[in-house]
Design brief:
- By secondary structure, the chain is mainly alpha-helical.
- The chain has 13 helices and three strands, in the order αααααααβββαααααα.
- Strands 1-2-3 form a three-stranded antiparallel beta sheet, with no helix packed on it.
- α6 packs antiparallel against α8.
- The longest helix is centred in the N-terminal third of the chain and has 20 residues.
- It is globular, with a radius of gyration of 23 Å.
């Protein structure tokens, strides 16, 4: 694809103007480079709708997951829309591409009893254990993503106002309330550290903790506590949202707490509260 410069400008546009995460920008780059190899020597200005259809047919022949296919379609549409805006092309051949409908899988969550059992698993007073305790408490208390957790700096935490500044998806900041129990666990950990760091969670080498490390920490305690289900770091977030709704929180408040742009993203959690609704119905309806 003779569009290396255009692709570079497009990726800068995504990162600077659209505030896309580095992860999304990387995926878009890989998807468009794959499309470039498919085009071979054909110029970007001569691409037609039929070329895009042939490329999609090739992708479908590889039995890609619908979500992966949808992302590649999104990359193509965004790229050609950008090229048209920059007047590199006169018409947009990707305008007619239709993204397949995706079924949103219901998120898995822990029961309140399982959550408490896991959070209270780290007991000893060593620095590493205090850190693990603080990780669990913060994940459940705030509902933040693991990437947001490991990206926290000490200055982001307001211990007096019970607020944490979180850098979310698309580099969007939001202020998240945090409970006293979680703040105490965090303070205990920070006070126990022999070396001060600007970031909150450090590994044994003194560098910032990674997403994968958090996953390994959780797996360690899952084995110790012999919990019945496989728990991922993101399940703390799912549990946070589900438990809030079960205890009467309104959907828009949960949306703000999670940092969701669209309410429809948060609405998936309403499917998880069916048991709670059934209990309310059984208790309140005279003919139940």
């Amino acid at each position: 694809m003779k569009a290396t410069n255009h692709l570079h400008k497009f990726l800068i546009f995504l990162e600077i103007e659209k505030n896309y995460s580095s992860h999304t920008v990387l995926n878009y780059r890989l998807d468009l480079e794959e499309f470039g190899k498919f085009l071979d020597a054909k110029s970007i200005g001569s691409v037609e709708y039929s070329d895009l259809r042939r490329f999609l047919a090739q992708l479908k022949g590889r039995n890609l997951k619908p979500r992966s296919l949808a992302r590649k379609l999104s990359a193509l549409r965004s790229f050609f829309k950008f090229l048209q805006r920059e007047k590199v092309i006169k018409s947009n051949p990707a305008k007619l591409l239709v993204t397949p409908k995706l079924d949103k899988p219901l998120p898995h969550f822990m029961s309140e009893e399982e959550t408490v059992k896991l959070i209270e698993a780290p007991q000893a007073g060593k620095v590493g254990t205090l850190r693990n305790k603080a990780i669990f408490e913060l994940l459940y208390s705030t509902g933040m993503r693991v990437s947001e957790l490991v990206g926290l700096n000490v200055d982001d935490v307001d211990f007096f106002g019970n607020i944490i500044k979180v850098m979310g998806k698309g580099k969007k900041e939001r202020m998240v309330p945090v409970g006293e129990t979680a703040l105490k666990a965090l303070k205990d950990y920070l006070d126990s550290r022999k070396v001060e760091h600007s970031f909150v969670f450090a590994n044994k080498n003194g560098t910032r903790l990674s997403d994968r490390s958090v996953r390994n920490i959780i797996n360690k305690y899952i084995l110790e506590q012999a919990l019945s289900q496989h728990v991922t770091p993101h399940m703390f977030r799912h549990s946070f949202a589900t438990h809030l709704l079960n205890h009467g929180a309104d959907l828009r408040s949960v949306q703000e707490l999670l940092g969701h742009v669209n309410l429809s993203t948060t609405q998936i959690y309403t499917h998880l509260t069916t048991d709670k609704l059934k209990k309310v119905y059984d208790q309140a309806h005279p003919r139940a």
